[in-house]
Fold this sequence. Notes:
- The protein is of the alpha+beta class.
- The protein has one domain (3-82): Arc Repressor Mutant, subunit A.
- 58% of the residues lie in helices and 16% in strands.
- The protein has helices at residues 3-13, 22-34, 58-82; strands at residues 38-44, 50-56.
- Strands 1-2 form a two-stranded antiparallel sheet.
- A hairpin with a 5-residue loop joins strand 1 and strand 2.
- The protein is elongated.
- The relative contact order is 0.12.
Amino acid sequence: MHGYGVAQFIRQRSEEVLQVGEGSLYPALQRLQVKGLVAAEWRESDTGRRARYYRLTALGRAQLGAELESYQRVSRAIARVLQPA
């Protein structure tokens, strides 16, 4: 999806809790591209404007899996600490 679509997806999926501004999003997408975690290509958007579309690469999917696993491990540990004894 294009950058604006990524920002909208994050906002909607988080039920408006997370909002990513352009000043953070595009540099982050650029860093991910440099690391080979996303690929980008210029295409025409639904509105007929030229937009850069991003997609996860195989390396990006593998990294996402590793990051998700790490997040879940930390989240479970925090839940255990916060549970009353």
